[in-house]
Amino acid sequence: MAKRERVKWRFPMRAPMAKPREVRGWVLYGTAVATAFLMLGFRLFYSTSGAISPSFLFEWIDVPFVLAVLAGALAALGLHQALWYRLVTRQGVPLFASSFLMFVVAALLLYGLPAHLGVVTFFYLMFVAAVVLFVYTPMLSYGSKVYTGIAVVGAGALLASSLYGPFTGQAPLWNPVILGTIVAEALLLLGTLRLLQFAVRTMPVAASA
After folding, report:
1. Residues 6 or more apart from 178 whose CB is under 8 A from it?
2. What's this model's pTM, rounded to 2 decimal places?
3. Which range marks the domain in which residue 46 is found?
């Protein structure tokens, strides 16, 4: 018994460290976030300076659009690496989908910011919401009931605020950015609800263990 206690004293319990693949994934995710802000910079520049953005093949495929697609690709690859060891679990696919959709919603909010330069309050609210979504995305990987519940409430609030404009006639519903944001927010709400269901189911098991 004394020998067993000495072994425990020599090898104390330590918090699990992130694996190299996870670290690389989150670094790549951070690069995707930086690319999204670079996209915002180009969007604001072309909206305020009157300069015309170079286009590729079609008029709407401009520099900000290409940067937005690049940011999405980097985010998908980064999240795939960061969540690699959770993808094999039952909640792996909903976790990846919800995390990616959270990034997509944040990127779409940034993409649509130049259209709201005339309303300063709304502009800053959208910007803060995008930053919060970018920062909050890694929190979903904890599988916490509290964190996931906050994500559900936030996704519902974003969806309600995005639907308010089209329903009151203040914004066109069929605008590609607005419609894409609403669809992404609705899918994000469904995904976080599914994650919350997993978190509630596994909570008694974790407590009994």
Report:
1. 112, 162, 165, 166, 171, 172
2. 0.85
3. 19-203
